[in-house]
Write a structure and sequence with these properties.
This protein has 271 residues and is of the alpha/beta class. 39% of the residues lie in helices and 20% in strands. The chain has one domain: 3-Layer(aba) Sandwich (UDP-N-acetylmuramoyl-L-alanine:D-glutamate ligase). Strand 6, helix 4 and strand 7 form a beta-alpha-beta unit.
Length: 271
């Protein structure tokens, strides 16, 4: 029997099932990778938004990480919501000691409801401790602006921001263009480790059901890296996966609904 490919998400919780580790685990499963998880914080959220965030005991975080390391053969790992400087630092220091394969950093900062998912005091830790370990980092435009301190309004500025983030230590950088309102397409900029720039475009969909897109996108990249894909292959698949998840939407809840994590099955079935 071939060994099952395993991946890990280190992220926050979403009781509504559309984002956070729930979205990550659903995506891992859809990409035929066994998902494991470590909880960093407990946001209280549904499709209407985040209403509160509860801290976990730091020892609980450390013991979760140690438990995964003790039992599983992780081929790729992603981080999502890290929330505090202390959590970010503990996770980064742990990952230096763990043979978990490529790291994907989704620098989750703000929920769609506007609730902070990364404290201002933790941004420095992300930049100084986590990004130097990253194989791929996936900020949207607002997150890239926070990381770089620059305003991003053009494609040239997306590239410049990617270069600045790459200088922080990340090998490959995706600056996601979904927050740009102009144009019929949503274009993501991928800056590869060798300096090559790739643009990945998808039709812009008029929908409010985009909750968890960043989590899902980065989780798909993680799953593909776990299976041995290179960064360009992994990001290209993830772009197609999230495009299908948005286009073939589902309707649950009364706010910003989630994407459809099983939609890409239909795309693959016709390939």
């Amino acid at each position: 029997m071939n060994e099952t490919i395993q991946a890990l998400t280190i992220a926050g919780f979403d009781g509504g099932g559309g984002a956070g580790m729930q979205a990550d685990l659903k995506t891992f499963q859809e990409r035929r990778v066994f998902g494991t998880s470590v909880l960093t914080a407990l946001p209280i959220q549904n499709t209407k938004g985040v209403t509160n965030v509860f801290d976990l005991p730091i020892e609980a975080l450390k013991e979760q990480l140690a438990s995964i390391k003790d039992d599983f053969k992780i081929s790729a790992v992603k981080t999502g919501m890290l929330f505090t400087d202390e959590i970010t630092t503990i996770v980064a220091e742990f990952l230096k000691t763990a043979d978990f394969g490529p790291l994907v950093v989704d620098p989750v900062m703000i929920a769609k409801s506007g609730h902070a998912l990364l404290k201002d005091s933790a941004v420095h830790a992300v930049k100084e401790r986590l990004l130097p370990l990253a194989c791929v980092v996936t900020p949207n435009v607002p997150e890239a602006e926070v990381l770089t301190g620059m305003k991003i309004t053009t494609k040239a500025e997306m590239i410049e921001a990617g270069q600045l983030i790459q200088q922080m230590g990340a090998k490959n950088v995706v600056v996601k263009g979904g927050h740009h309102v102009e144009g019929a397409e949503s274009e993501d900029m991928l800056l590869l480790e060798n300096g090559q720039v790739e643009w990945l475009a998808g039709k812009r969909i008029d929908t409010k059901n985009t909750h968890g897109t960043g989590c899902t996108f980065s989780a798909c990249i993680t799953a593909e890296l776990a299976k041995g894909a290179n960064a360009l292959e992994a990001v290209t698949t993830a772009k197609a996966y999230i495009q299908a998840a948005i286009e073939d939407g589902i309707s649950v809840g009364h706010g910003n609904g989630p994407t459809n994590h099983w939609a890409y099955r239909k795309v693959e079935a016709h390939d």
